[in-house]
Amino acid sequence: MGKPKAKVDREKCLACGGCISVCPQDALSWYGSKALVDDEKCISCAICIRICPVGAISGEVY
Ligand code: SF4
Ligand code: SF4
Q1: Neighbours of 2 (CB within 10 A)
Q2: How many Cα atoms sit within 13 Å of 15 on the Cβ side?
Q3: 8 close to ligand 2 (CB < 6 Angstrom)
Q4: Closest atom, ligand 2, to C-alpha of 8
Q5: What is the domain partition of the chain in residue ranges?
Q6: Mutation pick for ligand 1 pocket among 9, 29, 43 (CB with most ligand atoms within 8 Å)
Q7: Which CATH code for domain 7-57?
């Protein structure tokens, strides 16, 4: 079992693109008009969780 991965709430995401630009693993990308986490790439650093202006990304506190 790895760490839990970040997850985007598609209802809350405003598609600002902030998380996509800051992810050090390039794990976030557009899926339709919303951000989506690639679990294979995510290292659970939580940077995206902190940067999202609307709290759309959740995850355990790493
Ligand atoms: S937790 Fe870190 S590695 Fe995972 S999607 Fe967010 S910024 Fe990228
Ligand atoms: S930072 Fe938040 S609102 Fe912006 S694209 Fe990412 S999940 Fe959506």
Answers
A1: 8
A2: 6
A3: yes
A4: 7
A5: 7-57
A6: 43
A7: 3.30.70.20
